[in-house]
Amino acid sequence: MTTAFSCRELEKRYGTTVALGGVDLSVEPGELVGLLGPNGAGKSTLVKIACGLVRASAGSAQVAGAPAGSADARSAIGYLAELFRFPGWLRADELLGLHQRLSGSTGGPAEREELLSLVGLGGDAGTRVEAMSKGMQQRLGIAQALVGAPQLLMLDEPTSALDPVGRRVVRDLLLALKGRGVSVLLNSHLLSEVERVCDRVAILVDGRIVARGSPDELSRPRGVEVEVDGGVRSFPDAERDEVPEIVARLVTGGERVYGVRVLSSTLEDTYLEVVAGADGQPS
Amino acid sequence: MRGAGTVALYALQESTRRRVFVVVLILTASFLALYAVGTEAAFDVAEDTPSGPALDDKVLTGSTLLGLAMFTTLFLGCVLAVFLTLGAVRGDAERGLLQPLVVRPVGRSALLFGRFLAAAVVCAAYVAAVYGSALVITAVAGGWWPDHPVTPGLGLMAGVVVLAALSLLGSVFLSATANGITLFMVFGAGLAAGLLGQIGDALSVKSLETVAEVSSWVLPFEALYQAGLDDLTSGVSGATGVVVQLGPFGGAQQGGPLLWVWTAVYLAFVGLAARAAFARRDL
Question: Which ipTM score applies to this complex?
Answer without folding.
Answer: 0.80
